[in-house]
Amino acid sequence: MTNPSTTEASGEPAARTPSVIGSLRSWVFEPVPLARVAVLRVLVYLFVVYDMFLVIADPPKLATVSAQLYRPVRMREWLHLPVPFPEYVQTLRVVVIIACAVMVLSVFRRLPGWIPLTAGLVAAAGFTDWASIGMSYSKVDHDHFALVVALWVLPTVGLATTADRRTGLRSEAAGWALLAIQIGVVATYFLSAVAKVRFGGWDWVTGSTFAWAMTRRGTDLGRALLDPPWILIASQWLLFIVEVLSPLILWARGKLRYLMVAGFLLFHLSTQLAMSINFLPLVVCLMAFLPLEKLIRQKN
Amino acid sequence: MKRLSGRGLLWRALALAVGTLLIVNGSVYGNDTHWPFASMGQFAFRVGDNDSIRSTFLAAVDEDGNLQRVALSHNNIGIARAEVEGQQRNFILEPQMLSALAENYARRHPGSPELVQLWLCQDITELYKGRERGTSIETMVGWPANTLIPESLPEPGGEKVAVDLDAPENSRPNTDESTGQSGQESR
User: Fold this and answer.
1) Which of 38-57 (A) contact B at CB < 8 A?
2) Contacts of B79 in chain A (CB under 8 A)
3) What residue segments make up the domains of chain A, in order of their start?
4) What percentage of chain A exceeds 70 in pLDDT?
5) Tens digits of per-residue pLDDT, B23-36?
């Protein structure tokens, strides 16, 4: 947990002072319990299966619509991924489900290291393909960024099992992976504020964008918030301020950090109640801020 | 404690830096086509206090001559409202694209009468000082006949109604060139 003695290979320019490199290294590669990664893997890989049926559930339906509605994101073109057709998306989903099952199994049974690495990369590639199909019919959502990051970094940690709770074994690779997911979460919030200023202008907060949302898809509760207008304008201010301040959670520790996680969860709950949008993939990744290993009993 | 080798530290540090730059680029300069490094642009546009709120819907007459609203959902026509809105311009420029929606509908409702005339329309809510002042309906495009939506269109959730498309009041040409851009929300 203290700064490691060897810092030559940290990838930083040699001109920096060793103390800067050291503190950067101890932040980016802060050793965290492998058991935390084990629990997060169970949550993430089970959620991916849920996601393919209930969040980005549309690829099988999109695969049957006319190809003239297909507007591929650049990633699909660069990688020469095919125009979706039913057999392709159904096979893709089965492959990702199997890979996710292996990843969950690897938490409870000690498998050879190459198995979770391979399965994890298959799940990452397969789900990225799947999600990009959902984004290739002229509607792109930004709720999946942190989840896609999680899928690509979680396999790099190596073995992580429930047994690691007993030994309390910590790992720098685990710390890096969790930080990457956390940055993915914070990027989603903070860059939402950046996009609001970019597309909506600094006066986004005083506009009627939330009224637009509630009018188009508000629940009864959401529509009740339309009048008087100041309720939704105050909500816009609150959201914008929270998004701008969201990077603080990267440095917050202990109770403050948990309070911030609770605050974000409350925000996602309120959008679910007001307009049936919940950003669940982001909610799952918020768990990367919590000491999840405590869910495993110490003596198992 | 499990430490990383120098190489392990190096590629991870680089990957984190590159990934962070890519996602920041997405929101500062990028657009939707850069997914997964797209801009976090949902709800990022501004709607003014005196603007109108547009919401696209599909209306159709089936082969039995009944006029109805057709929900724009994956279950109903294979594609959702926001996705239709995302390429609404294409539908207006190439009205025959609506035939794809009719085909999707037929495939998903094998027992139902087929849709023979479709209109892409918008419910418009006018705001005044942030408050709803009135609502109206605008026809974006019709196919195969690009006419205005008949005024007997049922309310959302209402029953279908018989309509005579040959009647003069139901065959007025649609000359509106509005593209009705309505912003982006969520699936």
Assistant:
1) 56-57
2) 61-62, 65, 69, 137
3) 28-295
4) 93
5) 999 999 999 999 99
